Amino acid sequence: MLEVSGITQIFGGVTALDSVSFAVHKGDITGVIGPNGAGKTTLFNIITGIYRQTAGTVTLEGNDITGLPPEKLARRAMVRTFQNIELFGGMTVHENVMVGMHTKSRSGLLACSLKMPWSISEERRIREGALQWLAFTGISDLADHAAGGLPFGKGRLLEIARALAVEPRIILMDEPAAGLNSQETLALSLLIKRIRDLGITVVLVEHDMELVMDICDRIVVLNLGRKLAEGTPREIQENPEVISAYLGDDD
Amino acid sequence: MQFDQILQYTLSGLSTGAIYALIGIGFSIIYNATGIINFAQGEFVMLGGLLTLSCLELLQLPLWAAIPCSVAVATVVGVLFERLAIRPLRQPTPINLVIITIGGSILIRGLAMLVWGKDTHAIPPFSGDDPIAIGGATILPQHLWILAITLIIIVVNKIYFYHTISGKAMRACSYNRRAAGLVGIDVKRMVLFSFIISSAMGAIAGIIVAPLTMTAYDVGVMLGLKGFCAAIIGGMSSGISTVVGGLILGVLESLGAGLISSGYKDAIAFIILLLLLFIRPQGLFGKADSERV
Questions:
Q1: ipTM greater than 0.85
Q2: A157 and A192 in contact (C-beta within 8 Å)?
């Protein structure tokens, strides 16, 4: 599904990522973990076209997507969410999700500017489609609230709903549980599993080990910019190198 | 002071104010989509008037055909401006962009001077110039045209931004460009589109005001600044607050010119502008730090 190979990123002499390669299988939930500074978010930013890497390639469904800007990736059914939620603050929750369905809009700018009736009826279709994603993420009751005034946990759900509205085949989440309380984290893990059950491949960077071990099918461990290990949650938990990276060496 | 006189000034102020509002909304739309204050906005107002003049006199088109023609040509100039001057910029910092728009405005004005000369030109009013009496005051049919066309444009704008998916995408860009790209919105296309809308609106404003005030290659400077002032009063909103801002400005200007001295007409706009920038830079109606559309 998604393959990164030989990703190297050097920021002014500091090697943030050193030849990282791994593959994400279709329909899996893949977790990318590692201590602070391991390069997880940098890796995400490279995959999603926000940074341009020093070397290496990213392949999505067999196509080279290295360095494509985010809007092109969205059209190739890959979306991401941010650690610090990025919403359209002054628009309603409902409108935020509608904008997510923008790429599915058939009538172009011209039709819209000429106020063609089908572009308004299409708006109605999208309005209804967006409601389904609000229901899926459980924030239907907030539809008419301003997105900027949402509590953090709800904002995260909205960001996920908006990403799903793009109808991705793969979604990358940057620390989805950051800032959530334990109850919200539990709800989130159920939501992520339901996203996988829709047939959407999930990749997440996460600090919450309990969440990662609970929901991930496969885990990639980064440490100091290198891939340390890769495997099922069980294999990772038993891997001595991973344990020492997290807990420090005994000697 | 007689009531009739005040009514007269207010009525004519409202129609000038409507023009300022249209120009101001043009400023706001580009500002919201790109963060740029497009100081070339006034030149599209000038182009609207002068292109209509050429369509009427040179091409002998009837008025109903001349107007869309000149709006179309002005819009093409807007597209070229975005393509050639804004988009290729390597480091689009606000100061670079502002200087580029000022440069663009000087260039467009200079070319207009070469094409149309330095003379002031008149465009015939849309439907005669028999005054209409309202109370003790009189207005011209052109005033009604201005108010009606402004109203239509504002309504169409509102429908576009709030009830079409493309309009919502454009608002989304103004709130969070990064997130907009993320959900597949082509931000560059939206920027281009904001220039299209703004230059078309500027041209329309220039056309409908030309029969009243005459037009020349340099009318864009003052009209542009007044429109900018309206947009600042409205807190750079592309909605109703900029319209109100334009109307307030138009009426104050007209009352000031009529009741104090016509020499202060332009000074009033800039005193308001300066006061607002000092005291309420977020606009008359805005909350501090509010998002704007």
A1: no
A2: no
